[in-house]
Amino acid sequence: xxxxxxxxxxxxxxxxxxxxxxxxxxxxxxxxxxxxxxxxxxxxxxxxxxxxxxxxxxxxxxxxxxxxxxxxxxxxxxxxxxxxxxxxxxxxxxxxxxxxxxxxxxxxxxxxxxxxxxxxxxxxxxxxxxxxxxxxxxxxxxxxxxxxxxxxxxxxxxxxxxxxxxxxxxxxxxxxxxxxxxxxxxxxxxxxxxxxxxxxxxxxxxxxxxxxxxxxxxxxxxxxxxxxxxxxxxxxxxxxxxxxxxxxxxxxxxxxxxxxxxxxxxxxxxxxxxxxxxxxxxxxxxxxxxxxxxxxxxxxxxxxxxxxxxxxxxxxxxxxxxxxxxxxxxxxxxxxxxxxxxxxxxxxxxxxxxxxxxxxxxxxxxxxxxxxxxxxxxxxxxxxxxxxxxxxxxxxxxxxxxxxxxxxxxxxxxxxxxxxxxxxxxxxxxxxxxxxxxxxxxxxxxxxxxxxxxxxxxxxxxxxxxxxxxxxxxxxxxxxxxxxxxxxxxxxxxxxxxxxxxxxxxxxxxxxxxxxxxxxxxxxxxxxxxxxxxxxxxxxxxxxxxxxxxxxxxxxxxxxxxxxxxxxxxxxxxxxxxxxxxxxxxxxxxxxxxxxxxxxxxxxxxxxxxxxxxxxxxxxxxxxxxxxxxxxxxxxxxxxxxxxxxxxxxxxxxxxxxxxxxxxxxxxxxxxxxxxxxxxxxxxxxxxxxxxxxxxxxxxxxxxxxxxxxxxxxxxxxxxxxxxxxxxxxxxxxxxxxxxxxxxxxxxxxxxxxxxxxxxxxxxxxxxxxxxxxxxxxxxxxxxxxxxxxxxxxxxxxxxxxxxxxxxxxxxxxx
Length: 815
Description:
Layout: H1 2-18, E1 33-36, E2 38-41, E3 46-55, E4 61-67, E5 73-79, E6 90-94, E7 104-110, E8 120-131, E9 140-143, E10 155-157, E11 168-169, E12 172-174, E13 176-180, E14 188-189, E15 195-198, E16 203-210, E17 218-223, E18 229-232, E19 237-242, E20 257-264, E21 269-279, E22 286-288, E23 292-296, E24 301-308, E25 316-320, E26 327-328, E27 334-338, E28 346-355, E29 361-371, E30 376-380, E31 382-385, E32 390-399, E33 403-412, E34 417-423, E35 434-439, E36 447-453, E37 466-477, E38 487-492, E39 504-507, E40 512-513, E41 518-521, E42 523-527, H2 547-558, H3 567-572, H4 584-596, E43 610-618, E44 621-628, E45 632-640, E46 650-652, E47 658-664, E48 667-673, E49 683-691, E50 697-705, E51 710-716, E52 727-728, E53 740-746, E54 750-758, E55 763-772, E56 775-781, E57 794-802, E58 805-813
């Protein structure tokens, strides 16, 4: 403490000693400045004057003597709050009691233990003066600095300089002043009257405030109801906008509402209140209901009628015009229900009135129509199908009364559709005692007559009222692409005759239901439009015979599931124009077209080309090859094996060819071809060697000649160990025309079914069905279906089921 007092005395001595000089000086950069604010105040008002220092070096102490006119100003206090030197512990005001100041005082600040005052610009203390009551408007009191005995001088002390006792700075000084202005007065509100408003109406109230001193005014709302908006326009005016609710605390239920407004000029403020009275406004209920309702006779008419009261008051109903048998439950929402009989038809108008307790009401009219219906409707299906697809085509009946018999006649276009079967199995009349269908009735192709009777001695019940199929026809759609995109009609036929009994029925008493009492709806088969055929456009990008088509084609052979062909792609893939799409011969023809520019139309007829597929087993695996008199362009081999084989075990024996390999489970697919159009020479030629392969089954083999012609292939069984259990062999020849042999072996007598399918999975022909003894068996297929009609060229599957054993293979018919 003694050291601190000694330091303080030393500093004060320095300040006193320095007082003998008065010229400005600053050895630390730019000249420091002490400056005082200038303010305006009215007579009798207190006014704060800020004393500021701008320095570009740290200060250890400062002294600021002040002189002023005591006739105009009376010093009230000196404050260091929020100043740059507030943190200093040693701050001296002389005189100690500012009440003794009489036109002059001095402020000194000294750094003892604290940090020095940093470089900067800002207030170091504030002096509060009271303006004399007798001061006149426009008078000015200057606040200046002057030497103040016994040692006070405007002085700053900078950082300590080595070799010197002090580092005094005599700064520049800018005086301040207090200008006497008018006395500030509080803002004044313009008169505001209490307001009256109906619920739901809009209150728009303008508030205006005047300031006697023309100061800027801030307006605010102290009490504002929910939903109200208050906008201060910034010019002493504001607008209140409010729409009272119809119900709740901000409606007439909460009236009156006290609202308060506040205005301020920054120093003085004023408040004003008013009362808003909200008057109740009753509103009518609002009904929600359908304006028209229509149903066919025999069905239920139902709808709801609801009423919303804007004032949330209870609603009561009154209804007029209800038909006999109709019911309204008078709830909210209210449910209307009417169940007319099949003979109750006509129109009627109903009025629904919703009222609130104060008598406000809303009325709606609902016009209802019950239309007559056909007691009996016969309809033919409308279906979509792809070319060559088998479909189910249904003949449907919707009957409101029981039926005991049918005499139906319809016609289809035999050029586009082929009838396979007609049955009542799985239909509504499956239990009828008699059902018969006749194709080409009366010698007219495409006419089909169906006769059905419920009871001819077996006791079957009549067909009860209902809806659904009474006959199912299986049809095959023509594979002729000329029909794609067409709609093939299937129509009821009414042949001339005295009885007019075509497409009639009998009721439960055996009476005839005449044609005019039945509604007949024809149907059609829409054959899908496969799009524009561009031979060679395999990837369907609109450009035919490009390398991308070849790549997509090869991917299809190796992975037919991932690169499946649509009907259009099959049509585009018949590059060699032999009527068989997606064959390896088509791949060769496409490569020749892309690489060599050889048009497929110039390929000569290759019927009669044959090849023998050869497999040679060795300890290291199996080598596959062929023997033929013709050069080959590609080969596709599909086999199954339980032996695991990967791509590293497959070796192509033709250096100029590419061999693609894919394994899917126990199936292996090998495609040998050349993107450069190279060929494999005639004679006996090795194709592929597969290391580690021993037991396997050849599923299918396809060869395409160097000219892109399908080659008939047989399998030479020299070296291949076939299973000695149940087995199904590859047909021979394959491709074939007009017939082929299918061999299979049975180790024991078995129940056997051998069936032919097309590529869409549709059954074509059953070659065998029944018990067959053990041994090797061979059956011939002559390329006809179950109706002994010749089938089209293409790929077919044959499937053998012997007991629980199932096998399938692929073959190709080439015409």
